[in-house]
Amino acid sequence: MKRLYIIAGISLLLGACNKFGDINVDPNRPSETSSTQLIANAELYLPVLGESPQAEYFAQYLSETQYPNLSLYNQVSSSFYSLYYGPLMNLDSVIRSTKLDATEGPIANQLAVAKILKAYYFWHITDRWGDVPYQEALKGSANTTPVYDSQESIYTSLFLLLDEADKSIVAGDIINDIVYQGNMARWKKLGNTIRLLMALRLSVVKPEIAKTEFNKALTAGIMTSNVDNLVFAHLPEAANESYWYDQITDQNRKWWALSESLVNKMKPVNDPRLPVYGDKNSAGQYVGLKYGATDGLSTTAFSLLGAEIRKQNANVYLVTYAQALFAKAEAAKLGWIPDGDVAAEANYKSAIEQSVRQWKNNDTTGFGVMMASPGMAYVPATAYEQIGNQRWVHLFMHGFEAWAEWRRTGFPAGLIKPDGKDVPSRQGYPQDEVFNNKVHYEDAVRRQFPGGDNLYGKLWWDK
Fold first, then answer.
1. Average pLDDT over residues 178-182
2. I need a surface site. Which of 41, 108, 188, 398 has the fewest CB within 10 A?
3. pTM for the whole thing?
4. Is 267 part of any domain?
């Protein structure tokens, strides 16, 4: 129940908010709530970055078994407001505070954790929407109509923020941390792994900068095992349970089946993760539902979301060691790190193994059989596609990240066009921005998207 107490201690901070920050909070004096409680509250928002049906539709992991709607890409606008006035406001309050309490752990480490989380949330936001408020955001009543910063400038700022955080970490843990229990060695690895993955995102648009930042992250020290993963662990209680448990078990909504595309990638190679990802259908088989289907729907003929994924205290995997290994495999193939295909192959194999260990509680049964299956052995000529496909399989249920990597690489190829609609390349800005921040909203749309604020404008790194 500890998380409930943290929420209760913070509730006043969220009582009177506008879209880019609490208008009743002085950012330099974050009330009586302690800094590490503010950090903990920001951590409570982490599942939102992964537990989203829309995210799974963008990555085409899940198909709708009843009432197809969002999977047909019918919703343009999506709101980022809660991420600003929730976790980001709390984190910025910590960063701006002049009254941090050293009894909660070294002040340098409190600031470092707040900066790492701030960078992670903003990375998520800009990769979904494009240009967004950054430098002028989180000012409360001092500025309720912030300028939209370019995505390029946001990436530059986030690289600097993560570098600051890494270099400032000192010995000593912090309290109230519900992710790593205050372990600063793991926070250091997380910050550098985020930096590594951010750098890879720029592989096409700014390859030299990407290579430099990638290697800086490697030198500083990234994740070295699944123990280092950024995981949000739900609790076996109603107040802190998984979104999917609430939907499927509590509300009996059997609305989601594994997509045919996903099952077709996994079943032919006897992928041992498939029984974790989905359940067998009523006939005892793993069968995916074609993405975007509007007829022939059923809650028994297809493989519904797996029991492990939908349990009450399910884990939400956000930044993982396997992701870092896939990134290193691609970097080796690109020539960013030494040993070319030799290193690429080693990291590719290790990434898949660590993914299996992650999803199967360190059990590698079936891994060897899968790797011996046709199409799984590393082939230099098709390496980019193999890495991209297996990264997509690994990122299951972290749809926004998988979708971002699909936009960057084009893998997996052949995603479905429901009703002839392409997979979106971004999300539309919140509808209220037209009224609440009209000048800056219109300027951002005009400079980025000639076709207007829709699902198909290209982000800076995707052009």
1. 98
2. 108
3. 0.94
4. no
Q: In the numeric block, which tokens belong to residue 81? A: 């407001």
Distance in angstroms (rounded) separating the CA atoms of residues 31 and 45: 20
**CA distance linking residue 169 with residue 232, whole number of Å:** 22
Helix or strand or coil: residue 374?
coil
Domain count, the chain: 1
Residue 166 burial (CB count, 10 A):
21
Domain that residue 45 falls in: 2-24+32-72+83-234+315-462
Q: What backbone phi and psi angles, to 5 degrees, belong to 233?
A: -95, 110
Domain assignment present for 53: yes
- Is residue 346 one of the residues assigned to a domain? yes
In this model, does residue 37 exceed pLDDT 70?
A: yes
- Amino acid present at 295: D
The residue type found at 299 is T
H helix intervals, 130-183 = 151-168
pLDDT tens digits, one per residue of 392-450: 999 999 999 999 999 999 999 999 999 999 999 999 999 999 999 999 999 999 999 99
Nearest to 100, CA basis, from 83, 82, 87, 113:
113
CATH of the domain at 57: 1.25.40.390
183 CB neighbour count, 10 Å cutoff: 15
Gyration radius (Cα) of the chain, Å: 22
> Is 241 within the bounds of a domain?
no
Collapsing DSSP states into helix, strand and coil, what is residue 277?
A: helix
Q: How many CB atoms lie within 10 A of CB 359?
A: 27
In which band, very low, low, confident or very high, does the pLDDT at 32 lie, cut at 50, 70 and 90? low
Query: Can you tell me whether residue 31 is helix, strand or coil?
Result: coil
